[in-house]
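Open question from group meeting: does this chain pack into something compact, or does most of it stay loose? Before anyone orders reagents, we agreed to write out a predicted structure and look at it together. Recording both the input and the output here so the notebook holds the full record.
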Amino acid sequence: MIIANPIYDTVFKRMMENERVAKFFIGTLLEQEIVAVEVKPQEFTWMDDLDPNSA
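Structure tokens returned:
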């Protein structure tokens, strides 16, 4: 059996972006009721203002 790494699994990532699905999934794993989920960005583009080639 091969289990994908959930950090890089795009399906898992998309599921966790949906608040209702994320609350259900996490609540099921923890066997607790989840009241709120705050989704924070996991990826960003760094722009170096000092680099003349970054514009």
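Observations to bring back to the group:
The mean pLDDT is 78.
The first helix runs from residue 10 to 17.
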